[in-house]
Amino acid sequence: MLEQGLYEQVVNTEIKDELRQLPEGSKHVEKIDAAESSAVLTQYLSEVVHKGLDRIAGDDISAQLNLVNKIVDLISQETAQDDLRDFTVDDEGEQLFALLSRDDPMMRIGQKKAKDLPRPETSIVQSSLFTGAVHEPQMFSELKKEIASADRIDMLVSFVKWSGLRLIIDDLQHFADRGGRLRVITTTYMGATDVKAVEALRKLPNTEIRVSYDTERTRLHAKAYMFYRETGFTTAYVGSSNLSNPAMSSGLEWNVKLTTKDMLPTIQKMEATFDSYWNTASFEVYEDGCKERLERALSTTGKANPTSEMQFVFDIQPYPYQQEILDRLQAEREVRGYYRNLVVAATGTGKTLISAFDYRRFCKAFSGSKPRLLFVVHREEILKQSRSAFRAVLKDPNFGELFVGSFKPGSLEHLFISVQILASQKLYDFLPEDYYDFIIVDEFHHAAAPTY
To answer: Helicase/UvrB N-terminal domain: from which residue to which, for each copy (predicted)?
Structure first.
């Protein structure tokens, strides 16, 4: 029996029978969004296949292999994609765990085998949680094994302590010596970073470091370690552990290990966000000759007014890559006369902020007043986040009205509305077609859905 509360559940036959017995007001059901249907149905089918395989599980997995291959064959037939037959599982039922280059000299002389390559104790295809419990591997021991098999590494930590770095510095040295690329972002926040640790990282080959010296506005608390593999089995750790000895060994820290095989969109967002930090002027290149500046910054941090961060008066400026998009938008309008423009950028790179910056620039032509704005998207939480972004960029805590769910606007002039409400209320029937000066449709890949 279905319990009351929130769902995001594909309606199957069993659930449909229950829903038929409920009054209309007690249920909220919508068509699966065409733009999200692949992800939604894949997740649902995964659950069904998992249950089915569990029911025929045994010491002999031939029945499971047979079922999997029937599914692969059916998908290949239904989609008319013969290349999908290459995904048929071999009858031996094996898993590949490692490969060595056939030219590896140590393998050729019999001193190295693929099965001996170090690998993390936790899976590289299933996400997991580290809580610092006694029975779990310590963070630093897992990171050492991740480093040994990574092709490139990104680290985002608010501070770097020598006590933590020394646990893995030899591993990083071997990684860099064999051609691995290491990028590190850190800060001078609270004066916690050790100059010795940053200098040790700087001396590694194939290593780049960027530091935020701005302790007035930058509050980077993120702790993330990303291990990219050309094999496609990328992993990442995100949580509470800075690069310090207690955080890496004995502390009760919580860290989630993510993998591309079960959390690909999250890994992609982490990569995009790291790159956005890396390419902003807020994080400056640390190289030979920067040591004295770092020492000064670390010795003077923590003396600022502690209440200053609570004031909503700072200016938010676009990153260089965002400014490039804004300049191209301006050129499209002023040079080519095109006023319907599509912005495409990776998840986490700030498309909503780009639209807010664009609108802020548009406002300058209205002598200080704010032109009428319509912002359309398909989910309430995205609307709230978007309005917050506009308020921050415009430095106006009262800007914009929500028209979604239980929110009813007092004015239509600066409206953040869901596409469902826009369609059901038919604003376009009673407002002039030129009522809005600036219209933004966010998450526009959903436009393939009939509701748009």
So the answer is: 316-451
By CB atoms closer than 10 A (0-12, 13-18, 19+), residue 86 is exposed
* Chain segment 13-30, per-residue pLDDT in tens: 999 999 999 999 999 999
Q: Is the pLDDT of residue 308 over 50?
A: no
Please give the order of strands across the beta sheet that includes 438-441.
401-403, 414-418, 373-377, 438-441
Q: CA separation (Å) from 50 to 32, 43, 208?
A: 22, 11, 43
Topology adopted by domain 128-306: Endonuclease; Chain A (3.30.870)
Quote the pLDDT of residue 304: 39
Most confident of 163-177, 247-261, 337-351, 366-380: 163-177
With beta carbons less than 8 A apart as the criterion, state whether 418 and 377 touch. yes
Please, is 244 exposed, middle or buried when counting C-beta atoms within 10 Å of its C-beta (0-12, 13-18, 19+)? buried
pTM for the structure as a whole: 0.68
- CATH H superfamily, domain 320-448: P-loop containing nucleotide triphosphate hydrolases (3.40.50.300)
What DSSP element (H or E) covers 5? none
Which of these ranges, 140-144, 178-182, 260-264, 377-381, has the smallest mean pLDDT?
A: 377-381
The residue type at 65? L
Rounded to an integer, what distance in angstroms lies between the CA atom of residue 308 and that of residue 327? Answer: 32
* Nearest Cα to Cα of residue 376 among 339, 414, 430: 414
CA 180 to chain centre: 23
